[in-house]
Amino acid sequence: MLFRLMLGRVLVVLVLIGGIVSCSESEASGLAGDPNSIGDPSQGQALIQKLGCGSCHDIPGIIGAHGMVGPPLTRMASRQYVAGVLRNTPENMVHWLRFPQKVVPGNAMPNLGISNRDAQNIAAYLATLK
């Protein structure tokens, strides 16, 4: 159990320093394919601004989003994994956004109480970041 917890924390550190593995566009098509099938990217962009995600992340298209706590979200749609442990699919992105502490306990991303619909909209915006 302790080993799994430590492994999870190591993975979070790798994510935080930008150690997310990239993949081809075809592998990331779940996110990069049709962002509107997930939610509304423009609403997601507004939510990202409203929630202050840029205080921890560097996020293209978000004014003032130059945070250095979490990983930069540049090219998020082209990445193979979310949080270093979940395949980068729309469903997994929504799950991560809603329950980051369940996915990787003790990681730096707080549970923000995001609704499913808001998480879908945020995931749709992140899917535009190719």
Summarize the structure in words:
GO terms for molecular function: electron transfer activity; heme binding; metal ion binding. This is Cytochrome c oxidase subunit 2. Keywords: Heme, Iron, Metal-binding. InterPro entries: Cyt_c-like_dom, Cyt_c-like_dom_sf. By secondary structure, this protein is mainly α. The protein has a domain at about 40-130: Immunoglobulin-like. Helix content is about 40%, strand content about 5%. It is built from 6 helices and 2 strands, in the order H-H-H-E-E-H-H-H. It has helices at about 1-15, 30, 40-50, 90-100, 100-105, 115-125; strands spanning about 80, 85. It has a two-stranded antiparallel ribbon with strand order 1-2. A hairpin with a 3-residue loop joins strand 1 and strand 2. The longest helix is centred in the N-terminal third of the chain and has 15 residues, at about 1-15. The chain is globular and about 30 Å long. About 35% of the residues are buried. Residues about 10-35 have low confidence and may be disordered.
